[in-house]
Amino acid sequence: MDSTAPQDEQDATHGSTPSSDDLPRPAAVVVLAAGQGTRMRSATPKVLHRLAGRSMLGHAMTAARELDPAHLAVVVRHERDQVAAAARALEETAVVVDQDEIPGTGRAVQCALDALDARAHAAVAARLAETGDAGSDLGDGLQGSVVVLAGDIPLLDGAALGELLAAHHADGNAVTILTTELDDATGYGRIVREQGTGDVVAIVEHADATAEQRQIREINSSVYVFDAAVLRRGLGGLAADNAQGEVYLTDVVASARAEGGTVRALLSDDPMLVEGVNDRLALATLGAELNRRILADWMRAGVTVVDPATTWVDADVELAQDVTLLPGTQLHGATRVESGATIGPDTTLTDVEVGADATVARTHGSLSVIGDGATVGPFAYLRPNTRLGERGKIGAFVETKNSEIGAGSKVPHLSYVGDATIGEQSNIGAASVTVNYDGVHKHRTVIGSHARTGADNMFVAPVTVGDGAYTAAGSIITRDVPAGALGVSRSQQKNVDGWVERRRPGSAAAEAAARASSDGAVKDGLGAQAKRELAEHNALTGNVPGDVASPQSSESA
After folding, report:
1. Looking at the record, which segments are called Disordered (predicted)?
2. Which candidate, 98, 93, 87, places its Cα nearest to that of 68?
3. Sign for the pseudo-dihedral over CA of 8, 12, 13, 18
């Protein structure tokens, strides 16, 4: 950013972005979130539309918090309750201010300042009451610098606000404005400068600008720092005598200059940093740009992003050095990925913790924890409260929910594990299901450590399989299996010979069966299976093929 002060003053006061420890603490930050946003064509208030995992209001309040203001105020009007609730969810101590029916940014800030002044008076009154000076003057109200920003500028960050605040205090300005230049400034308020000094004379809204003023490329970003006293006096004299019939905050610039104050601008060379959102197209455009910047920051920090064009990472995601993100990866919410982990391809994680050196491929997961060195996927679904221990495995086509799978344990494929606890180093056979729901209540399955469960098992909860126990394939486990035991639950198999030829005559299966019978037939007409069973019987009884069995051997049979 470049200051509009003379060059020697720029070098002296605005060389580098100050650290947060060096910044003066603003008396207040006011976020304007009262607009209707009709061009969004949405039942959702404009400032609550989201990008990079946060609402636009969330981005504005996050930037504001980085200044550590004494007060954070949010001005609301349209869809008041939704916006107010969102503001308080983001910051419990936020001062929610209602704008009245008088339109315009000037009126919005005036309502906020009135509320903040009332708080300041109340604080002074309380102190005076403690000292016995209750009749003393309460003062004018809020004192110090007041930062004002629109709630629909999602790329604006705390660093930019900090630089603006530092310039304001370094130059001793009455008002400092954040500006940028656009090739096409249609619709924006123009910055009118004083010849020679470069100070700001006025901000003229597009609708009120002359043809000459509309040629100006420098525009107002709706981000300001005011001295509280200057702001209070300026707001007191505002009127709605303009083309829009609104009370403009920008008119405070003229009043500040009229009383001898200095008004300067800090020019940003990054127009998208201060670009606002008015419709869905702008939301998508800025969302893509914000994602590009987030990925660029992570790549500079040592994260490999194989295909930035298909990778999306929210603003609150945390990535360690040497993480690799493969194409089609989406990381949302408070997801955290530790060093050496590989995520993707085609993976979506929301509020998931991934341990060091873990691998997560083609997986959808939320509110889960994946341990160090674990592997998940492909085509796994981790529902909330899944915890996979270190070096554990959740394999292909496995769904988990509210379950803890211990270190080194594996659920390799085609299974559902819900409301379960699995110990360490156990293996769950393919096509296994923890049957956790009885139609009213959920019940828990517990499988111990070093257990081996067979394929196609149903664990009807509540049920426990002990440490070191086995279960046979195809079993329905309805009772506890003690440690070291084998749990078996299956009926005896029965084969009905000739069923296909009798019940499916003329089918391909019947023809194949007939050929097999013909190839294996003996002179007495026995099929191959019957022949094998007869041979086993003869071996047991000592009969010779073709002999007539004795009555005794018949009884034995």
Report:
1. 1-25, 509-557
2. 93
3. positive
Q: For residue 179, which of 194, 196, 200 has the smallest C-alpha distance?
A: 200
Tokens (6 digits) for 73: 């105020």
Contact status, residue 344 vs residue 327, Cβ threshold 8 Å: yes
Tell me the per-residue pLDDT of 485-536, one tens digit each, with 9 for 90 and over.
Answer: 999 998 888 889 899 999 999 999 999 998 887 765 544 555 566 666 667 6
Cβ neighbours of 323 (radius 10 Å): 23
- Which two structure tokens, joined as six digits, stand for 18? 């100050």
CA nearest to 376, candidates 334, 402, 389:
389
The DSSP-derived string for 415-451 is EEEESEEE-TT-EEPTT-EEE-B-SS-B--EEE-TT-
* Position with higher pLDDT, 249 vs 365: 365
Closest CA to 28 of 119, 139, 160: 119
Q: Which phi and psi (to 5°) does residue 101 adopt?
A: -75, -10
- What the block records as the tokens of 367 is 């509110």
* Eight-class DSSP state of 249: T
The secondary structure of residue 481, as a DSSP letter, is B
d(CA 551, CA 220): 112
pLDDT value for 10: 35
Q: Of 225, 25, 28, whose CA–CA distance to 113 is shortest?
A: 28
Query: Contact, 44 vs 77, CB < 8 A?
Result: no
Known binder of ligand: residue 34?
yes
Q: How far apart are CA 447 and CA 453, in angstroms?
A: 9
The enclosing H or E element of 364 equals strand 363-366
- 413 is known as an active-site residue: yes
Triad 532, 517, 511: Cα angle to 5°: 150
Q: Does the annotation flag 189 for ligand binding?
A: yes
Catalytic residue among 169, 364, 413, 441: 413
Reading the block at residue 91, the tokens are: 């910051």
Please tell me whether 261 is known to bind a ligand: no
430 annotated to a ligand binding site? yes
Q: Strand locations in 39-115, DSSP E?
A: 50-51, 54-55, 71-76, 95-98
Binding site annotation covers 33?
yes
pLDDT digits (tens, 9 = 90+) for 185-223: 998 999 999 999 999 999 998 988 999 999 999 999 999
- C-alpha distances out from residue 74 to 87, 96, 248, 275, Å: 7, 5, 18, 20
- Report long-range pairs for 291-297 (Cβ below 8 Å, ≥24 apart): 291/52, 293/155, 294/52
The response to whether 401 counts as a known ligand-binding position is yes
How far is Cα 48 from Cα 129, in angstroms, rounded to an integer? Answer: 42
How far, in Å, are 210, 219, 263, 268, 277 from residue 191 at the CA level? 13, 6, 11, 13, 20
Residue 22: DSSP 8-state: T
Q: Any idea how long the chain is?
A: 557
- List, in sequence order, every residue forming a beta bridge with 446; answer none if it has no partner: 421, 464
φ, ψ of residue 75 in degrees (nearest 5): -95, 125
User: Hey, which residues does 332 pair with through a beta bridge?
Assistant: 350
Three-class secondary structure of residue 458 per DSSP: strand
Of residues 391, 393, 338, the one with CA closest to residue 363: 393
